[in-house]
Amino acid sequence: MTDYLQAVFAMLGPGERRLADPAAWLRLEEGLGRSLPEDYKRIIDTYAPVQINGHLALSHPASGRFNLGEDIRSMSATWAESAWESHVTGPDDDPRVFCSLPHLSFGTAEGLIPLAATDQGAAVFVAPRVHGFSDAMVVQGAEGDWVGHTMAFAEWLYRYLIGEEMAGWDSAVFYPGPVRLEYLPTGPSQRTQEAYGPEREM
Q1: Distance between CA atoms of residues 47 and 13, nearest Å
Q2: pLDDT reading at 168 higher than 90
Q3: Are strands 180-183 and 193-196 parallel, antiparallel or unpaired?
Q4: pTM
């Protein structure tokens, strides 16, 4: 069985661990009323705030800029006011059905919590369950389509990086060679720093 967290670390390299801060996670999780997945927190602590391969953005709860808590609050408010139901065509793409939720909420302990986003319009959430799988991923793609993935964040990220269709309909893109990491500034005096993961035999 693949250890997807270690596979992600192997693909992205050692990271900079600029902001690892247990207290920041504690404050965020107390506000949310639930813990976030451990594999997600380890990836965020190792790399975020970062943009991966020019598209996928990951924020950090201890960062002054690209702050995860602020992103979760603002994105949740936007989603709560959105017409997300308009893209649902039936039970197979209805997050209320595959998440076993009578009502869909955002940024709450029993709802969808936004974890990441792409500049192409996809949003990645963690749900309490998807088809019975705990702390699983839910994605709304750029075309508005909803899909539930019965997997943890590390597996979702690994599959996204190897070019599987993980960010909505017709979203599969594979970038050969090392993964590009843009370490985003955490304060006003910093600039984006570019780095690359190890060579990939893919």
Answers
A1: 9
A2: no
A3: antiparallel
A4: 0.93
